[in-house]
Amino acid sequence: MNWPKAVLFDLDGTLIDSAPDIHAALNETLASYGEPPFTLAAVTGMVGRGVPVLIERAYAALGKDINPASRDKAVERFLAIYEPRATELTTLTAGASEATRILRERGIRLGVVTNKPEVATREILAHFGLVDLLDIIVGGDAGPAKKPEPGLLFLACERLDLPVDDVVFVGDSENDVDAARAAGMRVIAVRGGYTSRAPETLGATALVDRLDAIPELLASLRNDAG
Ligand SMILES: O=C(O)COP(=O)(O)O
Ligand SMILES: [Mg+2]
């Protein structure tokens, strides 16, 4: 009856609204190469597939090619700017504290599975007092291919020593839903995150407006789980 055994959360656009800090760091990175800035909305649309893809998308939007070596240098520069200032403008999303606290009180184990590198992820989660609530943190640099591939979710299950069926993933974008579906894991999509797609069309098992709707919703997903 104790289902699910764990809930995993995506980070950017799901637990935190990090786009303003990513926007600032990306524009500073681009400025150091003599490139013009992007708006917050434009950068928000580039987030979700990890930092290398963020850099590639920025150059593509500038109409420029970037070779892998230059991209990797730009990734390093971006992270050097972003990591020390990753919580200046970033906030927790509505209901994030409540949802994590309630699930934890119910004895459900918690984790984060993000395409963001683990160092920045840990610093941000520590800043918001969430590290102690989490059993595992899997960053985009953990080894397996990033979401929408399922590898990071499989790694999370391995670290929790739980089968996919005992775990629910929560995310804001097609990267999360596609990764969960590829892993055979139930997935809840949350509205208002970083995706250009209508949340109803993502193909999630369930959809919520805010994270604090999740504790109640889990009961109905459990019934589906049989
Ligand atoms: O780093 C990114 O691009 C997005 O990270 P996320 O997987 O937490 O949304
Ligand atoms: Mg996200």
Describe this structure in a few short sentences:
With 226 residues, the chain is α/β, with parallel strands linked by helices. Helix content is 43%, strand content 13%.
What does the secondary structure layout of this molecule look like, with pairings?
Layout (H helix, E strand, L loop, with lengths): L5 E4 L6 E2 L1 H14 L7 H5 L6 H11 L6 H15 L8 E2 L3 H10 L3 E5 L4 H10 L8 E3 L12 H10 L6 E5 L2 H10 L2 E5 L15 E3 L5 H12 L1
Parallel strand pairs: 1-4, 1-6, 4-5, 6-7, 7-8
Antiparallel strand pairs: 2-3
Helix pairs in contact: 1-4, 3-4
Provide structural commentary.
The structure is a single chain. This protein has 226 residues and is of the alpha/beta class. It contains nine helices and eight strands. The strands form two sheets. It has a six-stranded parallel beta sheet with strand order 5-4-1-6-7-8, with helices on both faces. The chain has a two-stranded antiparallel sheet with strand order 2-3. Bound molecules: 2-phosphoglycolic acid and magnesium ion (MG). 2-phosphoglycolic acid binds next to helix 3.
Q: Could you say which structural class the secondary elements and strand pairing correspond to?
A: alpha/beta
The helix/strand order is: EEHHHHEHEHEHEHEEH
Percent helix range: 40-55%
CATH-wise, what's the superfamily of the largest domain? HAD superfamily/HAD-like
Output the CATH class name of the largest domain. Answer: Alpha Beta
Beta-strand percentage range: 5-15%
User: Which geometry do the CA atoms define?
Assistant: globular
Based on CA atoms alone, the radius of gyration comes out at 17 Å
The counted number of beta strands is 8
Query: What is the CATH architecture term of the largest domain?
Result: 3-Layer(aba) Sandwich
Overall pLDDT: 96
Largest sheet: 6 strands, parallel
